[in-house]
Write a structure and sequence with these properties.
453 residues, alpha/beta, Rossmann fold, UDP-N-acetylmuramoyl-L-alanine:D-glutamate ligase, Protein-Tyrosine Phosphatase, Chain A, 3 domains, 34% helix, cytoplasm, cell cycle, Mur_ligase_C_dom_sf
Length: 453
């Protein structure tokens, strides 16, 4: 870790704890900052605040007093989930106090080069692919950022021999000033998080911050399947490297069933372990970053032919009596399920779907579910999905939850079929999170596989 003096004897306010706030507080404390943590959770119910207090860090819990900002703070480091219209954040900005997120701290102290990945969809899968490819090539890649490992915590222990592979949300990127990765990647840009950013333009501007400080010495990898990204390519100082499907570009591309990087054949498209057009894009993005990092093709092929997916994101669980089973519990909306379905042959596919009813119908799924072998429906949206299936004369299995759906569909399916949990709905009608929903499905898979041994 670089022993920077930027924060030495400077008063810094950490707004909001969670894992990133806790990590930022410890890092700044080690750098000699005068740290105050302000968290909304009451102290008696706040183990993180108690631990920080024992380490000599001041904590103020249970409320957010605006007058706290009159105490001469030089910086605020906020939890990424806290919006900029929050009264504390607005007050800090009005007082000209720089408002950072902890990925900026990670950059400032990191001895390791950073590969930064952002985008609307595919960030986690692509970030994980890149890290696994680098490690397969004998590098030391460390996952960090929005993927679940606080960036400042990982950066504090990384050395120049490591590489930080960092997933970055728009929320995190808004709190950067000097942040500059060696390679930046934007997987795609769609409409998202408008409640936080206020407009699509503001959301896109936040994503675009990933390349804010890049020069001709760094690389920006862009999705040339999207006209928006192609247009953005003209507005960066970085070297632009493209990826695209079914067209030749200066970068990674697929053509006639083969994957290439700058005309160098890498592997057959059919050998990819993950199905779907979106995963083809993820693979090409990972290839581009890997080749720019000097990775051997053997490592790329090894990972891309065996990668079973990130947990709950079109994750291949395995096979039971000839049926392949996938867990895509993260598919909490229609677009995600449409993308998942693109990778399978409908005539042999059983779709398990349902969850929280947000008031929308499922007509957008009509073209992509046509010809399904069957569906299991559950949760609040079950009646709407049943109606969809009836329109297309798809056999259905009304189920209580994801676990019973798997067992019931297994009985009706045959060897050679695929069973896919891709709910097209949020999980909150029956589960606290999509992870809890996916974990129940995984447990049901393991139990069923054990019973049939």
């Amino acid at each position: 870790m670089k022993k920077i003096t930027t924060f030495e004897q400077k008063k810094v306010l950490i707004l909001g704890l969670a894992r990133s706030g806790e990590a930022a507080a410890r890092l700044l404390h080690s750098l000699g900052a005068l740290v105050t943590v302000n968290d909304g959770k009451a102290f008696d119910e706040n183990p993180a605040a108690k631990a920080l207090l024992k380490e000599g860090i001041q904590v103020i819990c249970g409320n957010h007093p605006l007058e706290l900002l009159d105490e001469g703070f030089a910086y605020m480091v906020k939890n990424p989930g806290i919006r900029y219209d929050n009264p504390m954040v607005k007050r800090a900005l009005a007082k000209k106090i720089p408002v950072l997120t902890e990925v900026e701290l990670a950059y400032l102290v990191s001895e390791a080069p950073i590969i930064g990945i952002t985008g609307t969809n595919g960030k986690t899968t692509t970030t994980t692919l890149i890290a696994e490819i680098l490690n397969a090539d004998g590098r030391s890649a460390k996952l960090a950022g929005n993927i679940g490992f606080p960036a400042s915590e990982v950066a504090a222990t990384a050395t120049e021999k490591d590489t930080l592979v960092m997933e970055l949300s728009s929320f995190q990127l808004m709190g950067t000033i000097d942040f500059k990765p060696k390679i930046a990647l934007i997987t795609n840009i769609f409409s998202s998080h408008l409640d936080y950013h206020g407009s699509q333009e503001a959301y896109e501007a936040a994503k675009w911050r990933i390349q804010e400080n890049l020069t001709a010495d760094e690389y920006l990898v862009l999705n040339f399947n999207q006209e928006k990204c192609r247009a953005l390519a003209a507005h960066t100082a970085a070297q632009v490297v493209a990826f695209a499907t079914e067209q030749q570009v200066d970068g990674a591309y697929s053509l006639e069933g083969k994957l290439y990087f700058r005309d160098e054949f890498i592997m057959e498209t059919a050998a990819l372990a993950l199905p779907g057009e979106h995963n083809l894009e993820n693979a090409l993005a990972a290839i581009a970053v890997a080749k720019l990092s000097g990775v051997e093709n053997q490592a790329i092929i090894k990972v891309l032919t065996s990668f079973s997916g990130v947990k709950h994101r079109l994750q291949y669980l395995g096979e039971i009596s000839g049926r392949k089973v996938y867990n895509d519990s993260k598919a909490t909306n229609i677009l995600a399920t449409k993308r998942a379905l693109s990778g399978f042959e409908n005539s042999k596919l059983w779709l398990l779907a349902g969850g929280l009813d947000r008031g929308n119908d499922f007509d957008e799924l009509l073209p992509v579910v046509s010809g399904l072998k069957g569906m299991a429906v559950f949760g609040e949206t079950a009646p709407k999905l049943q109606k969809l299936a009836d329109q297309l004369h798809i056999p259905t299995v009304p189920s209580e939850n994801v676990a019973t759906a798997l067992k019931e569909v297994f009985e009706k399916s045959t060897a050679g079929d695929t069973i896919l949990l891709s709910p097209a709905s949020a999980s909150w009608d029956q589960y606290k999170t999509f992870e809890e929903r996916g974990d129940m499905f995984i447990k049901a898979f393991e139990e069923l596989k054990g019973e049939l041994k």
